[in-house]
Every structure is written in C-alpha cells, then in structure tokens.
Design brief:
Length: 390
C-alpha cells in the first residue's frame, strides 16, 4: 500500500511540476502572444517562484498539525482554480495572478507529499521514497513539457492549463477515495517550529539550495533560446530535446535515490554540485556545437536531479521533528533562487544581448552553493560529535 500511495503522490507532483516547467518551454510563444519581450515573459517564472517562496512556509506551518490527506486535497483544489484562471487569461496581469495561485498551491502540495512519503516508509528507505516523489518532477520534463509544447502548437497555450486542471480534478477524487489519513507533525507552536532556523547546519544548507537553484535558473529559464540561438537547434526539435533532457533527469533522480541509501545524502550533494559547476563552465566553449552542447546539458540534468532527493533527505535527517517546516523552507528557497536566477539571467541577456554567457554566471553562483554545502556538512559533523560526547 505504501508503494502505491507514493506513486499517487508523485503523480500529483507531476501535474504541479508541469504547470511550472512548461512556461520555460513555451516562453517565445507566450512573449509573442502577449506582445512582450522574452525577458519580461521570463518574469512569469519569477512570479510563480516568489509566490511559492513566500506563501508555502507560512501555509505549511499553519497546517503542520493537520492530516496530510486534508492538506493534499486542499492544495489540489487551489491548484485547479489556478489552472482555470490561466486558461481564461488573455493578458499578462491575469496570467501573473494565476501563476501566484499555482505557485502557492504547488508548494503546499509538494511539501505535504514529501512529508507523507517520509512518514510511511522505514528510515532506511527514505531516500528511495523521496526520489520517487522527485521523479514526478522529472517526469514532467519527460512528458509534461513536450506534450505541453505539442498542445501549444496544435491548439494554444491556454489549453495546457485546462487539461492540467481536468486531470488534477481526477487525481483529487482518487486521493479523496483511496489515500489513507497520514498524521501531520508533532504539535509544536509556530514559534517552536521556527527555532530550527537557529541551526547553522540548516541555515547553511538553505544557502546551498538558494545558490544552486539561482545558478540553475540563470540558464534554465532561458534554456529554449539558448539551445536555439547558441546551439543552433531547430525550433521543431525543441520538444524532442526536452524529452531527452527529462529522461536524463529521471535517470539522475533514480540514481540519486539509490546513492542516498548507499553512500549518504551529503556525498551525493557534493558530487552532483561539483559536476554542475564544471558543466556550466564548459557550455559556452561549445557554442554552435549542437551535439556536444546537448550532451553537456543532458549530463547536467543527471547531476541536477541527483541533488534533488539528496537535499530533501538531508534536511529530513537533520531536523526530523520539524521536517514539514524545513522542507517548506527549502522548497521556498528553491523558488526564491529560481526567481533570483530568472531576474539575473534576464539582466545578463539585456546587458549582453545574448544568452551565451548565462552559463558562466550560473557556474560562478553554483560555486557559492558548493561552499555552503561544505560548511553545512562540517557543522553537521561537529554537532554530531558534540552529541556523542554528551
């Protein structure tokens, strides 16, 4: 039963992730349809990410004692409303409002899914359970984004959100009928929950997330223009490229889950972040080389999705009594980083009139993530040593 429960949760993540990721894949279409620049269209991702970052920890903390089933159902209901508003959007203002609703509802759902998965499996299987949830995200790249691009070409971009809303309604019904109730966190006050922010291990870990996701967003927000303009890939092949990237991301997710259970979350985080720095630094050197550039991005997807379940597992292990809050803060920091990276990437494009140099900016920022990771690991070892001495 636990296995199927986790798959149902992952399917919900697939839907919420598709609503987020598909915008990057249709950025040029949105810009043209709404009569705005690509840089301005990129701020739709910023709006989503800021809403996710600000709203998620507040709502998660306020609902931390509630059963996970109720929280999941409430989040999906709000998500459906956001999808319908996106479907009806005909101007940038309405679309931004819908992105805010989608950002907050997706954030609450994902955190509740992570928390539920961690509670229904034995401790030695947490890595695999979390990687299955993250697999819902990478599956959105494999299927959601390419299908979204195809739907845009066939019908229009609004149709994507109508379809997401209808499928989400079905998933909501399935969860309502079949998912067992899963307890929330232990009854701690709002103030007690936030005491976890006094931990240097957690704080430096959150900086790791912020810098890594900021760096990733500098490139990935404008990935479609990069592979078209710099790697010279034809627009008709974009959906195929996204499919390939998603497959590599799924491989990374699965390998990350296996690696966590075998070697530990910290080692997977360190390895994947180092690989990320190197690949980002190499990308501009192969401008115009379509095959090598696409291969590098595919390897980058492996390392990126390896880090996802590893980071989530790391925080669960470091703050088990406040896992929902820490996971919500981490996912909020992810989207704050994405928003920052989208803005920085847009500024870089406006300054240089090209997306060529975005990977170098991204590589520098991810170096800061690597430094934050080693600080967090060092602090964690010191804390463990002090506890053992007591």
């Amino acid at each position: 039963m636990n296995k199927w429960t986790i798959y149902v949760l992952a399917l919900g993540v697939f839907l919420t992730a598709t609503s987020e990721l598909v915008v990057a894949g249709i950025l040029r279409v949105l810009a043209k349809d709404l009569n705005i620049s690509i840089a301005f269209a990129g701020q739709l991702i910023t709006a989503y990410s800021l809403a996710f970052a600000i709203g998620t920890p507040i709502l998660v903390s306020l609902t931390s004692r509630m059963g996970r089933r109720k929280v999941l159902l409430g989040a999906l209901t709000a998500f459906i409303m956001g999808c319908l508003l996106s479907f009806w959007s005909s101007d940038i203002s309405t679309l931004i409002v819908s992105r805010i609703i989608l950002g907050v509802s997706s954030g609450v759902y994902i955190v509740a899914a992570f928390g539920a998965a961690a509670k229904i499996v034995p401790p030695e299987r947490i890595g695999s359970a979390i990687s299955t949830i993250v697999l819902g995200f990478s599956s959105a790249m494999i299927l959601g984004v390419p299908i979204g691009i195809a739907i845009t070409n066939w019908l229009n971009w609004q149709a994507i959100f109508l379809i997401l809303g209808l499928i989400s309604l079905l998933i909501t019904f399935v969860i309502f009928r079949l998912l067992p109730e899963i307890d929330g966190d232990a009854p701690l006050s709002f103030r007690q929950q936030f005491k976890v922010l006094g931990s240097a291990v957690i704080v430096s870990g959150l900086f790791l997330t912020f810098f890594r996701e900021s760096g990733n967003s500098v490139l990935f927000t404008y990935l479609t223009p990069f592979i078209q303009d710099i790697l010279q890939l034809k627009a008709s092949n974009i959906s195929i490229a996204m499919l390939v990237f998603g497959i590599f991301g799924a491989v990374g997710t699965r390998f990350g889950g296996y690696g966590i259970d075998r070697w530990g979350a910290a080692r997977i985080i360190a390895f994947s972040t180092i690989v990320l720095v190197v690949i980002l630094a190499l990308l501009p050197l192969f401008a115009g080389s379509t095959l090598i550039g696409l291969l590098l991005i595919s390897l980058l997807m492996v390392s990126l999705f390896m880090a996802g379940p590893a980071t989530q597992t790391y925080f669960i292990q470091q703050a088990p009594q406040s896992s929902s809050l820490v996971l919500s803060l981490n996912t909020s920091i992810i989207h704050l980083g994405l928003a920052t990276g989208a803005g920085a990437g847009g500024a870089m494009i406006s300054t240089t009139s090209t997306v060529l140099y975005n990977p170098w900016m991204a590589s520098f920022i991810v170096v800061l993530a690597l430094v934050s990771a080693f600080i967090s690991f060092s602090m964690g070892k010191k804390r463990l040593s002090n506890l053992q001495k007591r």
